[in-house]
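Hi R.,

Here's the chain you asked about this morning:
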Amino acid sequence: MPIPTGPGSFLGAGGPVMIILGLLSVAITALMIYCILQFRSFFKVFGSTPEVNHPLTRRWQEIQDRMPQPLAFVVLTAGLQRAIRWLAHLGNISTLTGLLGTVVGVYTAFGALAAAETGRMQIMAAGIHQAIITTIVGLCLAIPSLLAHYYFRDRMRDLETRQAVHSGSDAR
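And the predicted structure, written out as tokens:
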């Protein structure tokens, strides 16, 4: 099996598990973008100088009129909190999917080796090559996903603190 030189040949060399890893990559990227955009909006509402005309500020006021502030904040941030949790889930799933690719590749290599009469080292190398590629891609998805999860989780804690301060200043 030739060494992959471009993105297409690299992804193709990983076998069918790469399709799952590709879908995970799209989901992780979408969640990261969603979290970034949500935090930008929330920090405009709960910042030191809140934007009064921001749509989220109006929504915050509507929810606050119907329920206590702590519960209103939970309702307002539920989607963001769910997205942050899913970043961790997808990071873990990416790792396991990469490992699945490793196991499938090694299984394929040993199956082909057992059936082959000649060229055993080449057959073995091709299967192991496939196995390692899916492991690499799985880890390349898992690491940034988990880093984003931890970063956004900490930003969420900052936002909760700002909301508490903001609520305290409203009570005065």
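The two ends are 71 Å apart (CA to CA).

Let me know if you need anything else.
M.
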